[in-house]
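Dissemination and training. As part of the outreach component of the grant, students in the summer workshop were shown how a complex can be specified as a set of sequence lines and then modelled as a single object. The example used during the hands-on session is reproduced here so that future cohorts can follow it. Participants entered these lines:
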Amino acid sequence: MARPRKADSPDIPNRAVTAALSLLAERDGPDFTLAEVARAVGCSVPAFYNHFRDKNALLRAVHDAGFHRLHDDKLALAARTEGSALDRLRAGGHAYMAFALENPALYRLMFSPPPSSDLEDGPLAHDLGRRCLDLLTRAVADSQKTGALPGQDPAVVAFTLWSAVHGAASLILQDRAPEDTASRREAARIPVETLMALITASL
Amino acid sequence: MARPRKADSPDIPNRAVTAALSLLAERDGPDFTLAEVARAVGCSVPAFYNHFRDKNALLRAVHDAGFHRLHDDKLALAARTEGSALDRLRAGGHAYMAFALENPALYRLMFSPPPSSDLEDGPLAHDLGRRCLDLLTRAVADSQKTGALPGQDPAVVAFTLWSAVHGAASLILQDRAPEDTASRREAARIPVETLMALITASL
DNA sequence: CCAGATAACTGAATGGCATTAAATTAATTT
DNA sequence: AAATTAATTTAATGCCATTCAGTTATCTGG
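and obtained this result:
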């Protein structure tokens, strides 16, 4: 099916994803039109359909690209940071919030996954999110070795912490943080520190 | 502007909201068409525009109705439950998760608010969510009187807890809970209990 | 009860946008 | 170089929100 294209061929799929990422970054809303993507890529709209089943397929590709970025650019970096296990947990939390605030539209897309009209749904998307969660689970397990969170299942704690930072990011991006927080950056810092305080209180 | 209508008039706005709530409950996706709403209400599509500026205005009304339900049917009830402050906190958490699981499409709409093409944006929507958050803040403050969470700002803790349950609900509705949880109900129970364990550990 | 004003309603456009269809061009194979 | 296949394009098609122009119902004051 995927006949090799001419070497200097525009490589429409990658360029479409890149263009969509740019459009998401420019606008605040998650809505761009296929015509815009096609114009940015330099092809006509129907040509797009030779590379993606439909618009949702593109959105899902962008969704996956977002998780790759989150994992590689932020979380993996934070996990490699010097310091105690709890420090890495804190760094990961702040890195996560920073990613959400820097890429609001992309973040929203990553967590309002477009309906998969495709049969092979779960595998990749699931694995990508899973890899991010695994990073977190490991940090939790390491923290437990230092005495924190005694007797808890690290996977359960990791999911709860992920829920908390995701929920906070989601609410802040909707301007639903308490109105007395001066800036989004501050609103994003507070829940992470509060969670860390809860965790250290269990020592 | 709002000329009083004939007494037996169909009261299109309320019926439209009710119809939209039904459609959201039936379908899983958040997408219904104005024609469907109009048919359920028993009027033509353009008649709809005499009562709502546009479709987003209806979505915002449904959004608000969702917060009313959440507050009145669930959270206020849980806040009145017998038991210690921590028990009420736990009951509120479970009630919140139950609401999300029972009304998935409505819940998603409540937390992906449609763009407000209306100038008077924030007040009501904000106040409704705020009232829910206030309930939670009060429960946290009461819990602190019994020695939990010493030295923390109750408003900050409340927002963090809300973030956590909202994030968990959001992830579970996307089938992003760890795949080893047997059912959604169980997946919804676990994060609330984990948070309660963290809180009681601070005693 | 009636004439005029005003609001609510309806069927028929309009227009944006995703998706398809039919036809054309380019590339690859033999 | 002819034939097969893939990639692309222009021109539909269709769904749906929104708007128009005209019509009917309701209310007001005489």
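The two ends of chain B are 58 Å apart (CA to CA). Students were then asked to discuss how this feature might be tested experimentally.
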